[in-house]
Amino acid sequence: MKIAAAALLVSGFLSTTYAAIVQTCPSPGICYSLSIPDSTSRSGTGDIFFQLTAPTSLEYVALGQGSGMAGSNMFVMYTSSNGDNVTVSPRLGTGYDMPLYDTSTNIEVLEGSGVSDGIMTANVRCSNCDTWSGGSMDFSSSSAEWIFAVKAGSSMNSGDLDANIGIHDGASSFMFDLAQARGGSADVNPFASTTDGMPVVVSGSDTASSSSSSSSTGNTILLAHGALASLAFVGLFPVGGIVIRVANFTGLIWVHAALQILGVVTYIAAFGLGVYMATQMKMLSAAHPIIGIVLLVIVVVQPMAGWLHHRLFKKYSHRTLWSYVHLWNGRAAIVLGMVNGGLGFALASVSRGTVIAYSVVTGMVGVVYIAAIVMGEVRRRQRAVPDGEKSQRRDDTSGSEENMPRTEHNAPRNSSSRLGWR
Ligand SMILES: *[C@@H]1O[C@H](CO)[C@@H](O)[C@H](O)[C@H]1NC(C)=O
């Protein structure tokens, strides 16, 4: 009994002395936190503290009070004019138009804010966030609805509180558990590293869009997504495209087909993880996921186009429309996939080293891939020269995507039709 009483006393003491922070991280690296001092929690009005953190690969992130953009009391964070700190612009949501700077909101950007290691951080105190033109929030209640929005893009580097901001790529509403955010003094910045006492971080419960507790899972998913998609577009697809042009052995076409089908399966897995993350972040309108969808369509059509090309080539001994669909679909997919990997890195907060490693490997694979295409086409043209035709019988199929053992059926009638060289 004594221990229980002591525990009760200590927990009561803790809850009034130390700040508590609730946090929601809709995506790895993007987090929104809230802390409500005891005095504010008791009266329902007064100072509150909140924090926004996001990678500088985003143009801005915004946190807002309310259930939707219309009538929301919003705080938009972007890099300051010289890029080494952040600008926090209070704005009033109007619906679908750009939210405009609201001069009546009293906020202060606090110590600990800034840009470091590619992460923007804003620690903010708001002294009149309980009401605004368009709404109100009772800080003594147990939970409240908030919204967030993000936009990918280069740093704004603007100190202008009224700066033009483009439409967000993703936005969502979520619940902040205000009861869990309760504690501490209104005089102490709970986000400063030198707070007396450790703030308690609680993940935002009832979050419509994932929570901080899953951020390590989120990182694993992000890592798996990037690794699988890179394996498909920087590994399997180009390697399959290279071997079909440079190698020459019986059954090569099946090695090519197997590599590419493995690539399609790998990409579908990466795509599934990507869709999961994009829906969590409500970021389906950004360029990266849209290109990802286009790529899915291309890579799913590609085996069918390849099969038709193969059948028709065997039948007519020259390239058909499907041959060109297959060739250019494949080339476009590989280039687009490599570029989309870069766009994905811009969305996620990955290290500079990862970006450099990806760029170097992708660049090297790209060079070998293009060289293989050029080599394959040059060989086709050489074979189209009738003189060397007979003496080079053995070489006829090498470096050709039509590489397959020849049969009576597809034996050449004349050189131009055999090689499909127009
Ligand atoms: C950013 O600005 C805030 C508010 O003026 C300040 O407290 C903070 O120290 C600044 N951060 C850096 C890194 O200069």
From TrEMBL:
This is Cytochrome b561 domain-containing protein. It comes from Extremus antarcticus. Residues 188-381 form the Cytochrome b561 domain. It is found in: Membrane. Keywords: Electron transport, Membrane, Signal, Transmembrane, Transmembrane helix, Transport. Residues 384-411 have a biased composition (Basic and acidic residues). Residues 412-422 have a biased composition (Polar residues). The lineage of its organism: Eukaryota, Fungi, Dikarya, Ascomycota, Pezizomycotina. Its main location: membrane. The chain crosses the membrane at residues 222-244, 251-278, 290-308, 328-349, 355-374. InterPro entries: Cellobiose_DH-like_cyt, Cyt_b561/ferric_Rdtase_TM, DOMON_domain. The keyword Transmembrane applies. Residues 384-422 are annotated as: Disordered. One of its GO terms (cellular component) is membrane. CDD domains: CDH_like_cytochrome, Cyt_b561_FRRS1_like. Residues 1-19 form the signal peptide. It comes from the Eukaryota. Pfam families: CDH-cyt.
